[in-house]
Write a structure and sequence with these properties.
There is one protein chain. This protein is of the alpha+beta class and 299 residues long. The chain has two domains: 241 residues, no CATH class; 56 residues. Helix content is 23%, strand content 36%. The protein has two helices and 18 strands. It is extended and about 90 Å long. The termini are far apart.
Length: 299
């Protein structure tokens, strides 16, 4: 059964890597050039091909900017779903830990992270978590903020656009390039091949006025299986003073982060309470058994 499952997985990945899809271009606002930025794989190209979407100075090479840029994914060890070495580049003073936490994916021969699916019944979504740690954060003054941007390139089913930075949703999200088509996929182990919808696409998420911090966490996922994460870049602009007129935005981001922490703490407290209740019930049962035993021995 294992060999059969692996052979089907190989067939699916082979289809994904060697596909010849029927394509239909989707016109998007701001589309002026073929994008495919992930084919460049150099740090200064991270935001090429998104005219109409990019900010005034989004460049990985900006002094004081943070960035981590993957054009493929190499795990820390065989069988691991942790990635700490961006294949294109990373800024000085930054360390990253990127994980796929659903453990339902596989790593293709060309370094893409792919979630399996059979026929028209996609599998579970892939779930991603990225933690960035800035060792230079303490060197910046108080009330400094950044613009944080995430860009991905995907194939297959579409991503969930509800990406979160420290628990706060993106202020802006765009599909900057998309070509829809079909790909032949097996209906299941030993099943017939049939066409499935697929998209070759690129996406960006933007968070404005994010307070400078020593670490940032981004959580995002796909909608369902049959999705391949090909490339990922995260950029944080050089720190700058917080615009006073945007104070509510900054407070909202901080509040969302605090709320996420509070929810996590409440969940932990509820779990601990349940464990304590079960322990107390077991302790009462034990005390009853002990009392019964003592009464029997004294009779």
């Amino acid at each position: 059964m294992l060999k059969k499952t692996l052979s089907v997985a190989a067939l699916v990945v082979g289809a994904l890597m060697g596909w010849a899809p029927a394509v239909m271009a989707v016109t998007l606002e701001g589309d002026v050039l073929p994008h495919q930025w992930h084919s460049f794989n150099t740090p200064d190209k991270a935001f090429d091909g998104i005219a109409g979407y990019a900010g005034p100075s989004w460049q990985n090479t900006d002094a004081g900017a943070l960035y981590a840029d993957w054009g493929g994914f190499i795990p820390t060890s065989s069988g691991s779903w942790t990635f700490v070495t961006p294949t294109v580049g990373i800024s000085a003073g930054l360390s990253v830990v990127f994980k796929e936490t659903s453990r339902t994916a596989l790593l293709t021969g060309i370094g893409n992270i792919y979630g399996l699916a059979y026929g028209m019944v996609p599998g579970p979504p892939m779930v991603f978590n990225l933690v960035m740690t800035d060792s230079l954060a303490a060197s910046y003054g108080a009330d400094q903020v950044r613009t944080v941007v995430m860009r991905t390139a995907t194939k297959g089913t579409l991503p969930d656009m509800n990406a979160l930075l420290d628990g706060a949703p993106a202020m802006v999200s765009h599909n900057t390039f998309r070509v829809d088509g079909t790909i032949d996929m097996p209906t299941g182990p030993g099943g017939a091949m049939e066409p499935n919808p697929t998209s070759d696409a690129e996406w960006i998420w933007v968070w404005e006025d994010v307070p400078v911090a020593s670490s940032y966490q981004i959580d995002f996922q796909t909608l369902v299986g049959h999705s391949s994460l090909d490339s990922l870049v995260v950029y944080a602009s050089p720190p700058h003073p917080a615009p006073t007129q945007r104070g509510p935005v900054i407070m909202g981001h901080a509040l969302a982060s605090q709320l996420a922490d509070a929810v996590a703490q409440e969940t932990l407290l509820a779990s601990a309470t349940r464990h304590l209740q079960r322990f107390m019930a077991q302790l009462q049962d034990l005390a009853g058994e002990l009392a019964t035993s003592l009464a029997g021995s004294q009779a």
